[in-house]
Amino acid sequence: MNKKTSIAFIAAGLIAITSAFAWYGETQDSEGHEHRSEHCMKGGRHHGYKMGKRGWAGHKIMEREFTADQIGTLTKARLIMRGNENLKLGKVTSTENGYNVTIVTQDNSLVKEQQLAKNGMPVKKFERLQKRIEARKAKASSQ
After folding, report:
1. What residues contact residue 7 under an 8 Å CB cut-off, 6+ apart?
2. How confident is the model over 19-60, as pLDDT tens digits?
3. Per the count of CB atoms within 10 A, which of 48, 51, 67, 126 is most buried?
4. Signal: is it a keyword of this entry (predicted)?
5. What does pTM read for this prediction?
6. Residue numbers of the domain that contains 12
7. Is residue 84 part of a domain?
8. Is 54 or 9 the better-scoring residue by pLDDT?
């Protein structure tokens, strides 16, 4: 081999190696993990929030409490988003563990009555989530 051919092979090798390192660096995040969907599915961090089953538990959703006026506003917004112009908010009454919300038609005939927790969730969903959080806390404290 002559000198020019050797230099060409060395240059091509260097270009290939630096390209491979550059490509590899783009697929890695700052912690050295591959940034693929399976990484996030395994409980990896993504944009500062822990993804996975326990990801939402760090938020303050369960602790937030709304007033009756705020619950009424949230319910009106949900009705508007559903797009049924025949429905409107009836009454919002306070109970010991949340609110009773009635949804009526424009001629004031009852459509349905909802029971909401103080944070705006349906009571059954709120209680189920609260039990799951307490069970996880108990499990974590026993370990």
Report:
1. none
2. 766 666 555 555 555 555 555 555 555 554 444 555 555 456
3. 126
4. yes
5. 0.55
6. 3-52
7. yes
8. 9
